[in-house]
Specification:
Blueprint: E1 9-12, E2 17-19, H1 24-34, E3 38-47, E4 49-50, H2 60-72, E5 83-86, H3 87-92, H4 104-113, E6 117-128, H5 135-155, H6 166-198, H7 207-228, H8 234-246, H9 248-261, H10 286-305, H11 310-333, E7 345-346
Parallel strand pairs: 3-6
Antiparallel strand pairs: 1-5, 2-6, 3-5, 4-7
Length: 347
């Protein structure tokens, strides 16, 4: 920036990413020029993935639904690639921050709390040539995202960060706290297995009342997810939920790592591998397999031993099957690519 003082804008992208829309820069600069308050413009990043996108690398719900909502609250954050910054705004935060492993999320966090603004432009700005499609590399990428986000939650909590509006605080808190929910899921699954196997339920109510509340809650949850992701296929919505829930153990480990390193000792960063190593990663999914096995056994004990009222058991069995199906995608992905090396690659 010091060598070229007349340059007003800078684009950032991963070194191996291709340009998406041919008019990508024109559109981004138009936004920045028309509105001097905009600090950066983020676009959609897509990747070359195998048919079906089993690892959800396209992040359709995030880019098509979540980011427009963040745009409405001025809570858009940079995603590293397909991004154009106003250089004068970067100078306000002394360049890209290096406190976290990757600078994208925190750089937006820092500029927004100083009164800057981010904009989301729904065009494909960049195309990644390689996206993680083997379990170790996928864990590494999502674990890094979780670790960076949780460090912000622990040590730069948005609720106590000056300069952010209430809506910005809530948007960032939702993003950061979503990883902590993995602990709630683990507790829920543990309690669920005890309830099915031994008839121990943390509720006091009639069987009919329990079933009614279960039906209303389950139905409202599905309606909410369908409404939130309208226009995106139900299959893709489910795949996204499967991946998120299946990464429960990865997010929990990231939560402990963020605490272990503290606010002043930065974790070691490893670049996400830019090639696939297809194999059967059965060890890497032992926790998911264990959860599925425990839930299957618990269902079996409930049906054979009749440990609880059938009406109460119906709701518990539903949730057990829900988690079995949710964890199945990550388990299936553990052998992804072994016999599909010639499978169609899509963008």
């Amino acid at each position: 920036m010091k060598q070229f003082p007349r340059i007003l804008y800078v684009e950032t992208r991963d070194a191996d990413d291709l340009v998406g829309s041919k008019d990508f820069l024109s559109y981004c600069l138009e936004v920045l020029i028309k509105d001097p308050k905009v600090s950066f413009v983020q676009t959609i990043k897509q990747c070359k993935v195998r048919e079906g996108d089993p690892f959800c690398n396209q992040e359709s719900i995030f880019y098509q639904r979540v980011m427009p909502a963040r745009h409405a609250s001025n809570a858009v954050f940079p995603c590293g690639s397909g991004l154009v910054w106003r250089i004068s705004e970067l100078k306000r935060i002394n360049g890209f921050p290096s406190w976290n492993l990757v600078e994208d999320l925190q750089s937006g966090y820092e500029i927004l709390r100083r009164g800057g603004a981010g904009a989301f432009l729904p065009i494909i700005g960049t195309i990644g040539q390689v996206a993680p499609e083997d379990i170790p590399n996928f864990y590494k990428q999502r674990g890094t995202w979780a670790l960076d986000t949780l460090r912000l939650l622990y040590y730069k909590n948005p609720l106590f960060t000056r300069g952010l509006s209430i809506w910005q605080k809530l948007q960032f808190l939702e993003l950061e706290f979503s990883y902590i929910l993995s602990f709630a899921m683990a507790i829920f699954i543990f309690n669920l297995s005890l309830s099915l196997a031994f008839g121990i339920y943390p509720i006091i109510s009639s069987s009919e009342n329990v079933l009614l509340h279960f039906i209303l809650f389950a139905a409202s949850l599905e309606i909410f997810n369908i409404a939130r992701a309208r226009g995106i296929s139900y299959k893709e919505q489910w795949r996204t939920r499967q991946i998120w829930l299946g990464l429960m153990s990865v997010f929990m480990i990231a939560a402990f790592r963020a605490l272990k390193h503290g606010p002043r000792r930065k974790p070691i960063y490893r670049v996400t591998r830019k090639f696939h190593q297809f194999a059967w990663y059965w060890k890497e999914t032992l926790i998911q397999k264990l959860v599925v096995a425990i839930l299957f056994v618990s269902i079996g004990m409930n049906l054979v031993l009749k440990t609880s009222d059938p009406l109460v058991s119906a709701g518990a069995i539903f949730w057990a099957l829900f988690f079995i199906y949710s964890f199945s995608q990550v388990i299936k992905n553990s052998w992804h690519g072994i016999s599909f090396n010639k499978e169609k690659v899509t963008v």
